[in-house]
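Hey, can you fold this one?
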Amino acid sequence: MRLVSFLLTLSALAGPSVRAEPLEIHGTTGYAGEYELSGSVSEQDSNGKKEFSGPLTVKHVGLCTYEGPFSESYHGFMDCGDGGSLPLRLWTK
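Sure. Predicted structure:
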């Protein structure tokens, strides 16, 4: 009986671990930190390695400027300095 109890305890300790609460992720990316990252990930143990998975949001927060007409719709470019120009489409509802 002690052997069975020991094996059950050992298998419970050796099994994959799952973090009970999600881990909040925040950061920046881009050459000048022009994008913010945020998300909520869960930790899992896969073959002895910790893996994190979950949704990630990337939001552009700066460095580009827009000049153009205020109209119902616009298709043109945003000036991003040394980063070049990015295509832009805007419309109103």
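The radius of gyration is 24 Å. Let me know if you want another pass with a different chain boundary.
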